[in-house]
């Protein structure tokens, strides 16, 4: 990379970080973030943090690193915003790197794609700190591992090195201590990559073995939490369909398929339309055969069905599966490193989504990793086309700034309401009131669990709940 491109790249990186920080700073706390805010502020040091996370591991879930980051972020608002900025920028940079878009324009395009999520997913990921710190960091770790072994996509033998072995062991181990469906993906990916290495090169790679060992040990530590056995046997707030045997698994999968396939594909037209269009360009460029034309026509038909029709959950799932099968067939018929990479990410998206069919409760946030992997499919295909436009960087800059500005116009009014709520509550505490009425959000659809009584975890006299917080709808004046 020339000096001019380096200056442009790092200037773009600084701009991205500044915009992301400004955006994160106006997100209000929602739902159980208020509990974590209170808990994080009360922790006296590393010892308190370790004891709190250990207690959670033994009673609630095994998400050790997810809880560590969430509680640390709750200590100070500035700490939370800096952490989210750095982690999100890392995700953008790694997505650009593994997709082959290494210029400033690629960085901007990836940034726009990462923050342009469907509303249902966006509100459960970026504004909701509890969702963010459990679902975004493991995706960064998974992409970081792929960035450290680019030979995988080139079908080359991976050369061992102590630093790379140690880094991949750490990434494999750490990525397992967040959410369970990503644990499943990492374990499958690490195992399959070792098998492919052995089949193709007739020997194992120390780098991939270290990655697998780290992933296996991390998965064991996560699943050793007593909470999972209790969940399997007795259910509770979190449930596994296996509690009721095979019938329970089937019923859970049937109930969950609407959420899984909508958040995976059906509710994300930007994803399936862009991937279909890009594969169409590849087909047209390669002097298509009749089977290629039929495949593309069927993919377009699937897109039209998802865009224009209202279908039952089962039919929607079947359309989505048909689209995935057709896309995979179109990719397989192409050759080269780019298409191999696209196939990997498509299979990875399905792998990460599969366990969600059998557990409850789930939400769009659980499909965030699959969404990012499908973004990687589209971005990898785009990089393989090697398109050259004179004004690519300004265009991508406009896309990112426009997306960020749109989000700012949505969340800044919510931020102002949040400030009003805090001011009224603090005034009530100063007066010694036992009840306070605050304005509700005008549009809480962009927040997860908006206007939540869980604010009472952060504002109280002696114990949470001794100050009653009432939310008054603005349009009624109550």
Structural class determined from secondary elements: mainly alpha
Q: Which percent bin holds the helix content? A: 55-70%
Rg measurement, Å: 23 Å
Tell me what portion of residues adopts beta-strand conformation: under 5%
Q: How much is the average pLDDT?
A: 91
The unreliable regions are: none
Q: How would you describe the overall organization of this protein?
A:
- With 478 residues, the chain is mainly alpha-helical.
- Helices cover 69% and strands 3% of the residues.
- The chain has 20 helices and four strands.
- It has a two-stranded antiparallel sheet with strand order 1-2. The chain has a two-stranded parallel sheet with strand order 3-4.
- Helix 17 packs antiparallel against helix 18.
Question: What attributes characterize this protein structure?
Answer:
20 helices, 3% strand, two-stranded antiparallel sheet
In short, what is this structure?
The chain is built from 20 helices and 4 strands. The protein has helices spanning 3-25, 33-42, 46-59, 64-73, 77-99, 104-115, 119-125, 129-135, 137-147, 162-174, 180-201, 206-223, 226-234, 245-266, 269-285, 290-308, 313-332, 337-353, 368-385, 392-431; strands at residues 239-240, 359-360, 435-439, 468-472.
